[in-house]
Amino acid sequence: MADGERKRTLEVARRASPGGELSGRTVLIVDDDPAHVRHVREGLAPQGYIFKEAHDGTQALSAIRQARPDLILMDVEMPGLGGVEVCRIIKANSGEDGFGFIPVILMTARQAAGKVEGLELGADDYLVKPFDMLELSARVKSMLRLKVLQDALVEKNRELDKANKELARRREELLALSRTDALTGLFNRRYFEERLNEEFARSRRYGAPLSLVMLDIDHFKRINDTFGHPFGDQVLKAVAQTARTRLREVDLLARYGGEELIALLPETGPEDALKVCERVREAIASLGLEPPGGDGTAEPVRLTASLGVATVPSADLASAEALLMAADTSLYAAKGAGRNRVHQHAA
Questions:
Q1: Confidence label for 110 from pLDDT (cuts 50, 70 and 90)
Q2: Which of 3.40.50.300, 3.40.710.10, 3.30.70.270, 3.90.550.10 is the CATH number of 189-344?
Q3: 4-aspartylphosphate: which positions carry it (predicted)?
């Protein structure tokens, strides 16, 4: 291009775009011809871009890792790694964990040679040297706008993914709250009854043992009347925590109502269920809670609990309701026999 024509082209480019929204974008020019690199820089300089240079494919990959350019103008024919090979590497690593999306405009002195191959490998545009600087400027702008849109889309998708994760987290929190007793942190009665039906059906289907335990804190009304309801709440929480630590992870413990707790013990036969109940009862009996307003010298309040347990398969327990009733009847039998004991339903 003659000097006069070049000056006219630069002046037209300056009037056409005094910076604009693409100013400050990084353009990597990859060419083994310093004169051509200088020519491209001078032609695009009025747009306010930031320029990086590389003179072969290896330098280009290094510059991409360091600068993360918004656009690459790359010669096809270079020593070592050529433009087509570098383009293949860039596009193969275009995910968020790699280079991300970077538009590539390939440049060549040969008319159609390699054009189809370059575009098939993911090059976003193709120019044949010598090219008009106004055309180059227009194509660069087009590719940079595409980059801006793609970056915005990636950011929106990232924000949407973050919002979806937050929504899922809050949904899980609400689900947990709907299943949880606020005072003790145990499951609530509604969730327990859902699981009871599920576990009973599974037990019948596979013939697996399933035990149900009902627990009642002895003389709880007296505790409330003597020490007040806040202390009664403290007792409930202590008993719930103690019972929970004596059960397995697969066991389901819930607050059934008032001072009653209830537990499902999957894969647990009568003998093992009785051992579990005794372990829980003994742990509760060893608790001693300081009464409210004490100075540390008062006798701790001793707690006891009565437990009733029933197990299926059993000839007389043909439904989940029957299993629940049997455990409840056994609980009242334990209380009637003097409390602080376990009573087991006789199959």
A1: low
A2: 3.30.70.270
A3: 75
